[in-house]
Amino acid sequence: MLTITPIYLAIAVVLYSFMAFVIISNRWRRKISIGDGRQQDFARIIRGHANFSEYAPITLLAMGCAELAGAPAQLLHVCGTLLLAGRSLHAYCFLYTPVGTKLRVSGMMMTFFALWVATGGAIYAVLN
């Protein structure tokens, strides 16, 4: 039974929903129904949301597999915290900064670390 991963899933859903509402409000304000209206700043906001939807699910899946395989709770909490911190930094950069920053790179590094550690934890737990 999963008892840790759902906590991070719930928080990720809140962050994902916030980003979706930012896009929706931008669509209303800019009067753009589909696409980005060839507005580069809006395209960046949309891409930030898409990036979240690409990386968060696979990392949460890896965490869930690790948890089901019996990985230590501390490992799962580290992965969940890194995932949420990394995705938050990355989202902040896409939503509120005009160009890429060191925070964006740091966010990606945290996300990849969470993904790799969760995957490694799952494999290790299965093999032992």
Provide the descriptors you would attach to this structure in a database record.
128 residues; mainly alpha; Four Helix Bundle (Hemerythrin (Met), subunit A); 4 helices; 0% strand
What does this structure look like?
The chain is mainly α. The chain has one domain: Up-down Bundle (Four Helix Bundle (Hemerythrin (Met), subunit A)), CATH 1.20.120.550. The protein contains four helices and no strands. It has helices spanning 5-30, 40-69, 73-96, 102-127. The radius of gyration is 16 Å and the shape is elongated. The mean pLDDT is 95.
Along the chain, the helix and strand elements come as HHHH
Arithmetic mean of pLDDT? 95
Distance between the termini: 19 Å
Largest sheet entry: none
Beta strand %: under 5%
> Which parts are unreliable, with pLDDT below 50 for 5 consecutive residues or more?
none
Q: Would you tell me which CATH topology applies?
A: Four Helix Bundle (Hemerythrin (Met), subunit A)
Helix content: over 70%
Determine and state the CATH class. Answer: Mainly Alpha
**CATH architecture title:** Up-down Bundle
DSSP summary, beta strand count: 0
How many DSSP helices?
4
Report the radius of gyration as a whole number of Å. 16 Å
CATH superfamily: Membrane associated eicosanoid/glutathione metabolism-like domain
Total discrete domains: 1
Which structural category fits the helices and strands?
mainly alpha
Shape descriptor reads elongated
